Amino acid sequence: MSLLRINDLKVHFPLRRGVLFDRTVGHVRAVDGVSLEIERGQTYGLVGESGCGKTTLGRAVLRLVDITAGEVLFDGRDLAGLDAESMRRERRNLQMVFQDPLGSLNPRQDIGSILLEGLRTHGIGGPPEGGERPSGRRLRELVLRDQRRRVVEALERVGLSDRALTRYPHEFSGGQRQRIGIARALVLEPDLIICDEPVSALDVSIQAQVLNLLEGLQDELGLTYLVIAHDLAVVRHVSDVVGVMYLGALVEEAASDDLYETPTHPYTRSLMSAVPVPDPEVEDTRERILLAGDLPSPAAPPPGCRFHTRCPWRQEDRCDTERPELRPIRVGGGSGTHRVACHHAERILSGELRPREEAAERIVPGAG
Amino acid sequence: MGSDAPLLTVEELSVVFHGRGSDEVRAVDGVSFTLEEGRVTGLVGESGCGKSVTSLALMGLLPDRGVRVGGSAVMRLPEGPVNLLGLSARRMRDLRGSRLAMIFQDPLSSLNPVVPIGRQVTEILRRHRGMRGSAAEREAADLLYRVGIPDPRRRLREYPHQLSGGMRQRALIAMAVACRPRVMIADEPTTALDVTIQAQILELLKDLVTEEGTALLMITHDLGVVAGLCDDINVLYAGRAVERAPRAPLFAEPTHPYTVGLLGSIPRLDAPRGEPLTPIRGSVNDNIAWSQGCAFAPRCDHYTLECLQGPPVLAPVGAAAGVEGAAARTAATGRAAAADGGHVHRCVNPLRAGGASDRTAPEGPAAVGEDEEERG
Q1: What are the φ/ψ torsions at residue B325 (nearest 5 degrees)?
Q2: Which of A64, A309, B56, B351 registers the highest number of CB atoms within 10 A of its CB?
Q3: Chain-chain contact of B194 with A50 (C-beta, under 8 angstroms)
């Protein structure tokens, strides 16, 4: 059974107007019907551009935003239906690493107290099981000693030492702060860590350090990750399975390698062609699909396929009216878990449908 | 003009910040490069390497007090060459916008939020081209249309917050190209944008360079962007160029350990999965002053005692003493050298071409500078 299973999750934010009366005039459909599964020990990468709802999805799993509809099954329990107190207890098993390492650490708390906070909240730590349980002051002492041991262990796992305990967040560099953020998640020994843009605020050389750290921790501790990022290259590097989001919904999901080999959805294709590759030869020779225009507003998503307003492969028949479902597709040589939300995926893949030039500029090297 | 002399020659540019009661900070420490017609020159490096300060110094946008700018930046103008660093504020105001223009990273904060786009675009037309009224408005609409903003007449009446990020960046580019400047500086123009929008903006910049023959200085931290756009690349570290080359040799045979480290740090979309990244250890704060040796030595896996004996000089690749295969490499980069200053690096102990593979990167924990925790 998969560790996390999301069924038709929806998160809608109401848009309110009015001075005296709060009228709800509409909804921003940040997440609008997403279903996915994450296996234990795997990394699921969620990629998409800003405003596609990937961060809201991550926060909804932790119930940091209210869920409008749908199920979030974690280890078989539906988190969407839990009351606040049970959810608080459950968060011990689901932790989050945030994008902005400085903004997510309290500047007035030293690292020791930041890391101890979670242990205290969840009442973790204490004298070893069995044997005689001391009481009163002696017990508090033992609990504190055990908590400290856990904190130091987590710090050492991320490459810092116990000297950090009495320091404050501003004394650390960006990369180290992100390590502290990871240690804070690790100290509770969670099953699932949701990483929301874990490296996008860091310099490239530091990015690689943090990515390697995340991978190493996964190997050691058997963690499961949900990595949310806008950088397709980062996501592909760390993930076993990648889901591509556009305007609140998954448009394609596949094993990382399959997605790179045969991107099927027109959006995935253009996204992939837009990612710069640090190699002049590749840059000069590959085909690029330049999308026209911007992301439509999630408050008024276009009818039919969400992508049809920018899609170079749009057809007259169903794209404007019928919303495509995420359905499995057979791709030659793939592992059979490729899913795509496009009416015409097969015909696009076979080359039967050609992209229209006016919808997207195609840059074919050598032709211009 | 027809002459193939560079449009802008920057030599030994240095910027020193000195505050009262605090130590001097050498943000830029002797950077030299040239900008040529129809070519894109790239400045690449991580935060704190001095790339943005370089652009501000060239545009004359650094404050007067607490800053010392040295070196020269000679721009070729029809009325004769001038040194941008020595111009009066008044003369600089005339040049800025008309002869050299800048595109900033964050389009929202570089546009005035309470003034409609139209007024901001026509302002530059009024100031430099003396246009007024409906003529200026027509020209502004035309500019917006040229940079790919649909329905420009309506956009002219809108405020910056009503435009999307990509649209705002296009509006900034429209303002930058309004007077057909010969030199354009783009400071991280796509960092705040999504990849599909980034691709649009880069294509637009590329078109400007090829069609108008503008010289573009591209400042970025993204080696992918550099690979697609720049003709000549300067890799900066701690205020100095550590490697300079045309793009093909730079990516094919990087020789400075820092360049190699940067390339090894980026997850590539087309790399086979599971290939580990080889990061550079430590952080930008672990450096020593250039006057004492190579600033990169504390993070370098190849440093020897030689690296700490005085500042290394920028030397042609292949000239480094006693490196095996040097002759072959000189031949390989020879044609590039003839075309454009060639491939130079600042390293006494350079890596052989393709040395990325034999690089052994010590993994994180032990390498994260303990002593560095004390600093910010």
Answers
A1: 80, 10
A2: B351
A3: yes
* Contact residues, chain B, for A172 at CB < 8 Å: 373, 376
Kindly tell me the sign of the dihedral angle through the C-alpha atoms of A205, A210, A215, A221.
positive
Across the interface, whether the CB atoms of A208 and B375 are under 8 A apart is answered no
- Closest-CA distance, A266 to chain B, in angstroms, reads 13
Q: How far apart are CA A231 and CA A209, in angstroms?
A: 16
Instruction: Suggest the residue from B269, B299, B372 to mutate for an interface test with chain A (most A CBs closer than 10 A).
Output: B269
| ipTM for the whole predicted complex goes beyond 0.90 | no
Its pTM stands at 0.85
Residue A227 CA to residue B123 CA, distance in Å, equals 45
Contacts of B287 (CB under 8 A, 6+ apart): B238, B295, B296, B298, B299
Task: Report d(CA B365, CA A156) in Å as an integer.
Answer: 8
pLDDT at B350: 84
Q: Give B363 to chain A, closest Cα distance, Å.
A: 8
* Closest approach of A123 to chain B, Cα-based (Å): 29
Query: Distance (Å, rounded) from C-alpha B278 to C-alpha B266?
Result: 9
Cβ contact B195–A49 (<8 Å): yes
Q: What angle do CA B173, B174, B176 make, to 5 degrees?
A: 60
Which contacts of B161-165 are long-range, i.e. CB under 8 A and separated by 24 or more positions? Answer: B161/B108, B161/B113, B163/B117, B164/A294, B164/A295, B165/B107, B165/B108, B165/B192, B165/B193, B165/B194, B165/B197
Residue A337 pLDDT greater than 90, yes or no: no
Nearest by CB: B277 against A208, A283, A293: A208
Q: What is the pLDDT of residues A26-51, one digit of tens each?
A: 889 999 999 999 999 999 999 998 88
